[in-house]
Design brief:
Layout lengths: L6 H15 L3 E6 L24 H16 L3 E4 L28 H15 L3 E4 L9 H16 L17 E8 H15 L9 E2 L8 E2 L6 E4 L4 H10 L5 E3 L2 E3 L4 E4 L3 E8 L43 E3 L8 E6 L5
Bound molecules: zinc ion.
Length: 334
């Protein structure tokens, strides 16, 4: 569940590419078209909201390209493309404009996501923390909508016309451990000191990075090293929004920051083992990775969806009948 096109690649690109490559079903739900974004390439400056106001449709194309790079085939806009408009940064008049995501009715917006969740039946939902990671109104609203939808989908009384009730096993918020990002900025400063090495001149602050928390808050770490190139390519596809020079990138403010292939999460609903960090968003979900789901004999009731596995695709991690099976919703806005 994500607010704008590009947030998914920046926050979860490696995670999405990894699970898609493993055969999990990954669904991205993006809440707005990002119409209020600033445009980096000068030759596309006319798309800006104060000129042609044509950035939204252009970013739909960028998002489609990014999803190709990540191998994600199921990407949707909340309520359909253009249902909710980018609200701009906090405090601007666009926040209150009719159709702005920030002014959307919470339960109405959540119902759109409930419909997707009841259709896809994911085990995992990924969204932002209550502050939206860095305070952007659309990110805060994406958090509220995702959490509200997670509450509503299991309720048989809520909109039975939107599908059968479904309970998401685990909900995560995007996170960035302070130790990791501080170290990343130190590396960036060293590289910037070498003349001509990077196309950037200025460095962002740790406070510019969404979701930064003390390291102990982080429960889960997804090593996306094998998908670093895919993540960078996906970010590069959002050319109006991101300038990439691996392993760094800058947004329209031209302030460089680290591009990390390892992505971090805080588990906020669902169970996990105490102690060390998880290395898999699906860890501990009954019937998924214990090798006992027996997909081949249907004994777990795959055909009727009783275990919630009927919508997904299988991932034979070891080639034996004990198959792991994963369904993800990333949008992260999953
Ligand atoms: Zn955003």
């Amino acid at each position: 569940m994500h607010a704008h096109p590009d947030d998914e690649s920046i926050n979860n690109g490696a995670t999405m590419a990894k699970y898609a490559a493993e055969g999990a079903r990954v669904t991205l739900v993006t809440c707005t078209l990002g119409e209020e974004g600033e445009v980096i390439p000068p030759h596309l400056g006319h798309l800006a909201p104060d000129r042609d106001d044509a950035l939204g449709p252009h970013r739909v194309g960028e998002l489609a390209e990014a999803m190709k790079e990540l191998g994600v085939t199921d990407h949707r806009f909340l309520g359909g493309p253009g249902r909710y408009r980018d609200s701009g940064m906090m405090g601007v008049e666009q926040n209150e404009r009719p159709g702005a995501f920030w002014s959307a009715d919470l339960d109405e917006a959540a119902a759109h996501l409930v419909a997707v969740i009841r259709e896809v039946r994911p085990q995992v939902l990924v969204t932002y923390d209550p502050g939206g990671g860095y305070g952007h109104p659309d990110h805060i609203q994406a958090h509220r909508v995702a959490m509200r939808a997670a509450d509503l989908t299991p309720d048989p009384e809520f909109r039975p016309d939107l599908g059968r009730p479904w309970e998401i096993a685990k909900v995560y918020w995007n996170r960035m451990p302070r130790g990791v990002i501080v170290e990343g900025f130190a590396r960036l400063r060293r590289d910037l000191a070498e003349p001509g090495r990077l196309p950037f001149t200025q460095v962002a602050a740790v406070t510019d990075v969404p979701g930064v928390v003390d390291d102990y808050i982080v429960t889960t770490e997804i090593d996306g090293t094998d998908f670093a190139a895919a993540k960078a390519a996906a970010m590069r596809a959002h050319a109006t929004q991101i300038a990439v020079a691996e392993p760094y990138f800058a947004l329209s403010n031209q302030l460089a920051q680290p591009l990390l292939a390892t992505e971090y999460y805080e588990l906020v609903r669902g169970r996990r083992e105490e102690g060390s960090r998880e290395s898999d968003l699906f860890e501990g979900i009954p019937g998924l990775s214990d090798g006992a789901t027996g997909l081949s004999d249907g004994a777990t009731g795959l055909s009727d969806g009783a275990t919630g596995l009927s919508e997904g695709t299988t991932s034979a991690s070891d080639g034996t009948p004990g198959t792991s099976f994963e369904v993800a919703q990333n949008g992260t806005g999953l």
